[in-house]
Design goal:
306 residues; alpha/beta; Multidrug-efflux Transporter Regulator, Chain: A, Domain 2; Methyltransferase, Methionine Synthase (B12-binding Domains), Chain A, domain 1; Rossmann fold; 3 domains; three-stranded antiparallel sheet; 8 strands
Length: 306
Amino acid sequence: MKTLLATKEVAALMNVTETTIKRWADAGELPCVKTLGGHRKFAMQEVIQFAEQHSYPITGVLSAEMEPGDRDTLEFSVQTKNYRKISEILLDEALHGERKRLMELLSYLLKHGIAMSTIGDEIIRPAMVEIGEMWASGKLKINEEHIASHALLEAIIRLSPELYRKPANGLSAVCACSEEEYHEIGLRILAYVLESEGWTVHYLGANTPFDTLRELFKVMKPDLLCLSYTIKSPAHQFIGKVKSLGTLVHSHKSAFVVGGFYAGDHLPKDFHCDHIATSAHDTVSFLRDRFQLKPGPKMKMKEEVS
């Protein structure tokens, strides 16, 4: 997995000359490390942080390591923000169980400054919906659906070192799937989005018993609890357990977010929660308002685009 960029690649991403990148690096404005041969190497997280702090857009496109036709399609789609086409590329890789290529694709998107929330909402989610519909209609066998889903989940998990994380905001969150909920891709994405926003995230994953969640919450007292669900047991029993959990969360003045594939069919009052998560973007927006998280001041760079 490539985590360091060469001077030429950073210059291509930011649409400036290599001389400009070297000048920023030598001035200590853009952190870098030097190889034994004296070549500058840049961590992607620090490149994004630099661009964000100085309001410098990442508008260039790196060359993708793909077949010429696929490479041109992906590069053009990234440049034009055609996330639907990128989702189709991701879907094809998932259906073939290409874990490594999925990882490379997701890493490529992060390198171009595409936020994890956008990757989740506009690229991964549509692909997963299509996979679900193909399985429901009989176009995809259950083993094929599992191969695609697990390949994508593994690629997402391996993406963690590539994430750009804002400075810690002092807030903590627990993310868990409820009892009988084994589909954790959406929850994993939300956890990464929270990490990107500076949260400390404790990820519990699939099929977490309600009793375990209650006991853990009492001990950890996080600022936020995120619960992903699929109702399989009788609805009234399940909703009763979620409401009880919501009462506990609110007794500690913490926030409670509930989400899942059918989350949009409910209102917050149905689960005694503060927010129904139907997308990563809307959840981040809710949390910024709920915890009064505001972006810090940004500086303007005087360098001109080449």
